[in-house]
Amino acid sequence: MFFSGFKISYGASLTTCGIVAAIFGIDFGITRSIASATDVKLLTCTGTQTIDYSPGLTLTPQQTNFTADGSFPLCESSDSTLKSGSFEFKGQGEYTCDLNSSKKSTATYNWNNGKSSTVTFTTTESVRGVSETVYTSIGQVTGGEFVGAKVELEAVSASLEPEQCLTAEGVTQLKGAITLTFVQL
Question: Which CATH topology does 28-184 take?
Fold first, then answer.
């Protein structure tokens, strides 16, 4: 066995697996990846985010505004001055509890070196587990540092409780671990 010194608990949370995957760069192949063996990785950051929805997400598609903010305390980059970052962005679109969307959204990532990167995301896909949802957003850097790079944002959040989706208020907030990757194709 490859991890002979570790005791495996089958009740381990997907959140724990997601955090470990983010820290060590493990890809479980749940979602498609933008990177291939010939691509140059420009940036990988791990951190956390909070997304607020108004009105809350329900089973019925409806126009929803969202605000996302988060931080990346740990970044590895081809730019040796870039070590960490943060972001806040807002968007709107027609969303439901399934989180899948082909809506465009734009985020600006502010780096510790005083530079920033503006990213336009064009698609989001989600894979729902028993207790967590992994969603992946794909886009491109459209301004600032690393312009032209392809971008993948993978987030692990607690799965939406079906009963919350049935309420009038819906799901108003998601929190979780995130990994941001920029590659030059």
Answer: AOC barrel-like (2.40.350)
Q: Which residues, 6+ apart, have CB-to-CB distance to 23 below 8 Å?
A: 46, 74
The structure tokens listed for 53 are 């929805």
Rounded to an integer, what distance in angstroms lies between the CA atom of residue 155 and that of residue 66?
16
What residues have CB less than 8 Å from 103, skipping those under 6 apart? 91, 93, 94, 95, 124
Q: Give me the percent of the chain exceeding a pLDDT of 90.
A: 42
Residue 69 belongs to what H/E stretch?
strand 62-77
- Relative to beta strand 150-158, strand 62-77 is unpaired
- Chain segment 158-172, per-residue pLDDT in tens: 766 768 888 999 989
- How many of the other CB atoms lie within 10 Å of CB of 142? 14
CB within 8 A of 22, min separation 6: which ones?
46, 154, 156, 177, 178, 179
Give the pLDDT confidence of 118-152 residue by residue, as tens digits: 999 888 777 766 678 788 889 999 999 999 999 99
Can you give the pTM of this predicted structure? 0.74
- Residue 33, CB half-sphere, CA atoms under 13 Å: how many? 16
